[in-house]
Amino acid sequence: xxxxGLEAMFGEPVTTSAxxxxxxxxxxxxxxxxxxxxxxxxxxxxxxxxxLRFVAGVDVRRYGVSDSDVGIRGYNEPNSPRxxxxxxxxxxxxDYYGYTAWPTLPxxxxxxxxxxxxxxxxxxxxxxxxxxxxxxxxTFDPIFDSVNEMTVRAGxxxxxxxxxxxxxxxxxxxxxxxxASEHQMSEWSVSQMPxxxxxxxxxxxxxxxxxxSTYVHGRATTRSGIEFSAEGDAGEAEQFEVTIGGWPATTSxxxxxxxxxxxxxxxxxxxxLSGYRNFMRYNYYAGFNCVTxxxxxxxxxxxxxxxxxxxxxxxxxxxxxEYRRNRAGxxxxxxxxxGFDLFAADAMWNWQITPELALTNSGRIDHMVTSFQxxxxxxxxxxxxxxxxxxxxxxxxxxxxxxxxxxVDTARLSTARAVQIPNLYDLFPEPVAGFQNPSLQGSxxxxxxxxxxxxxxxxxxxxxxxSTAQLALYHQTTRDFLAxxxxxxxxxxxxxxxxxxxxxxxxxxxxxxxxxxxxxxxGGEVSLKGADPDGWRWKASYAYIFIxxxxxxxxxxxxxxxxxxxxxxxAPRSVVNFGLGRTWGPWEADVAGHWQSSWDxxxxxxxxxxxxxxxxxxxxxxxYLTMNARVGYSPIDNVTLAVTGEQLNHTVLRQxxxxxxxxxxxxxxxxxx
Amino acid sequence: xxxxxxxxxxxxxxRRWIAALIACLLAPPGAAAATSLKDIQIGIRGVEFMVxxxxxxxxxxxxxxxxxxxxxxxxxxxxxxxAAAKGTKVEFVPMLTDVHGLEKAASFRIAIIAxxxxxxxxxxxxxxxxxNTLTITADLACVRIGACVLGVATxxxxxxxxxxQASATCGVDxxxxxxxxxxxx
Lengths: 673, 185
Fold this sequence. Notes:
By secondary structure, chain A is mainly β. Chain A has seven helices and 40 strands. Chains A and B meet through α1 and β2 of A and α7 and β7 of B.
């Protein structure tokens, strides 16, 4: 799809993320924010989470210099599972632990056309786990766009990054874009974590986080309109990370992914067939009682078929089917393999009832069957046959009315049902005997969490002040909330002695995940964004969320070891973002601020747990304001020099319960050719 | 979408033609506003989204009513803007074409309809049907009654509409993504 041509024609960003059908952003039946390539450049950020931090309703926890977790509308946590992240519609969310490892995203910031942030559930299009929101990273098109750029970043604490993007066109119907990057950083001072020592007195990480990546994206079309596409990426990353449940660890990743697609006009609409394979190897050198530091290999195969048609002037329909095969093994699973097979069917119907009023309904049904091959330790209460072949079937839907009474007003009324499945870690046994104590075992009978969302949105263009204002109000409930044995401090709730001894001869405790009740979130976002012909631009937003848990099991919230699911205190209630910038001649200058109210983080203090319970700790994070800025200068057309700063108003800042973040200053040289 | 069967196409064309004729009879002359530069800039972008779009130098008919001064002035403005337009893949060569001579006019793949043509929608549709012409106009009424293919309004917001009937009658098709994004009539 020629995003650039359509955007130039309609005068606003174009998206397919909301319904699977191309739409003007203003017509999308969801609350959505689109971050453009210009926004990305002017932000001065050198990671996607740092860009997302300034989006109303998005919560970014930076646990390390390269480790971030992104939540949308609350419920953020280490290895945040509720936000589905895609690159050109291809999942980069990792099913094993159910999260997004941001350093393993292969795209360079320079090759991103736009980042589309959908706030609220969108399972009806994307399936399981698109429950808090969806982030779709759309790159420039190899046929229609030409990105040829080299960027060098270097700055504080020895950080340096080199990246390059090149595009080759073959006539006007085929093109290939290639990018590569190498990035090294110095970790924040992990010894400054609130409770030390971790890992028996040894800080869990003393190295230099680093990444390298390559990404190739090619597309071709025939004269008759048949489209072919291929993408592939590979890379490695290593970082300090707070992993699932708040466990500090050193993690390294090696990954490669491939995708192929073909599509074309048929008598029944535009039919698209695509398939992709994601391979990820994780190596965990965890800061807990690690007998054998382990690797996990997770391979995902996805096959998708869709048909997009407009059978009548006022009706658009999209039909889809999907098959997923996910398998995990590795040294943590000697001789074993876990995973699932998933079959899904979905449909979207958009009805333009009148020129002012449109109704969009999407529905999807997912049927997932677990797969387990191997033996189960005797301390586990479930059998191998119970872990294998267990199935879920769950429907999800999104429905929205979009009303545009005038040329400047858009109102949306929407509701959605979404499904969050437990990750593989929580569905299957952890088969290495004595790997850790407590032994964290999955439960095949864990139910998916069901998320319901009810929302009113209103957008108004304000031509007199050259701005657009947006308001969103929502009510969200999560039923069968998932409490996982990996969650910090849930042991006293979930664990029980197994009657066995662990690898070091101590009595072993086994913990299982549970569905522990309901949680409700009420909130809203209001924002204003604008620009004038003199080069000024401005934005401001305020987000509020109030979460109330209704946990159906008894626990003592004053005890950190019993309170990791404490969502109302684990999300800042109020967040303010603002920015001001100007372009004049060869200069660009931008400043952005982010203030958030206080919240509590709960992490695991790792070590030999003599009492067989993971010692969790709660850290109160005070409210804080952090400021970023960038100044750019282009002495000639093809060269830009810039200085960017993150957290300029603090040398160090406690943003989470892990190490405090440190000020970052970078010089950036960009050459376009 | 499959092409309509010949009989259906003929019946459909008759209905469009009759509607266009009625619109012509009812329309006050010179009712439509003048075309703007932005209308033209947006409208010609629609060419890029045709299935098998033209490439290189493309002659474009600027159809006006030679007996209507406002229409002629509008057409001359369009000619100037189009001559200066820098298309990425297409160079447009504007050719002033009087609606009263359409029957003998040469074939054009693209035509832009100047303002003040309300009473000539039927001739425009007939011309476009014979030459498989994409007709672009800032007069949305021409599209809504099925006489023109592509309509553009740019104030206060960009609005792009397409007539499915005129599109089918004239044998002009657009890529799927574009059709999904426009309002069709």
